[in-house]
Amino acid sequence: MYLQSIHQILKELESSGWDKFAIRYVRKKMSRSLVSFATKKDLQTWYYSTHFIGSSVYTSMLKKSKLSKKQKLELVLSQLGATVGKDNFLYLNGNFWLDPTMVPHSKFLHYFRFLVQSVFPGKSLKEYSNSHELGDLAQKIHLFRSYIDYNNIRYIRNFWVGETDYDKLLSYEKSILFLRLDYKSNANFHNRHLSNNEFKFPQNMKIQVPYSSRMSEFIINLETGNFVSEWLGYGFLESNVNLSNRTREFNIANTESFNYGTPKGDRKLFLGLNGENHQKLDVKHPNDANCRKNLLKKNNNNYWKAEEMYYKKNDEKQYTGLYVDIVKKGKMDFLAWRSVSEDDKPYFYQEFIKYCRKIYPQKNPGFYIFLKIINENKF
Question: Which residue has the higher pLDDT, 329 or 39?
Fold first, then answer.
């Protein structure tokens, strides 16, 4: 029974697309682990460790494989059963699953992003999606990022303690040596508002995990301290919640987005990293699922619009946008903003814009510093 069960696992892995090099690696690992005795629980552990995409075993198999980089991306998506529906939504119906214990800074995600950058160099992911050879893969790769986001959110919610999602995220930060969550990237594309309405002030903040250069990110609502995600709009992540259309659209329009490229953030020097690939792989991407694409169409009467930044880079004397990030340094900015009453927020936000324009091109210091200056009557 022992040998037969191991044999069954290996045969299934082989039939799922693994080459002999990956199979040879896992056979050796299993043989060493189960050489003396194998229980049903032991075999079950090995089954899931080889079928959970993102586990240490699966990641090692992917690296040991001699498949081409393109074939490795196709293998992952094939094992997940990834298909694009008529609604342009990616559906996963395979016999492999994303590892629910995979951390947002995992080695698998780092390696997967390396594969994406290698297979899609030079042109934008949107351009690749229109090509014959890589079109289907490019579309699936773009849509797949939302499942990585979903897995990241579930991990934070399921394995960390706190009253809010933000509290749980901070607990995760404290647990990882040298990890400091990054708040520096602009969040205007995650603070979209209905185009028929006036933009008053940001509703959300963006937080990125700095390990592996900001690939995983989270969007937190400034009022509730909880995640903003398209998966909430789809009715996932929370049970027994009837979302209104307004809340549903809000979450879908302002969702997080896993980065295949390397966001520059506010860094002027970007040594050793290709800052352009963030634009090409993450910003200039193939079509979103129809449910999100339709919300962002500019030809709609009332679409979800991203406000322009408070400065104009090519002419700092002209100001066309009303967007400035509230949070740049972390929890201190978050709490400072929450200390302002709802009635006073529009006024303080306008004063904050004036202050940031006054000191530009110096960096936005965050709302905490600004409020401190206000309280000291220095502005």
Answer: 329
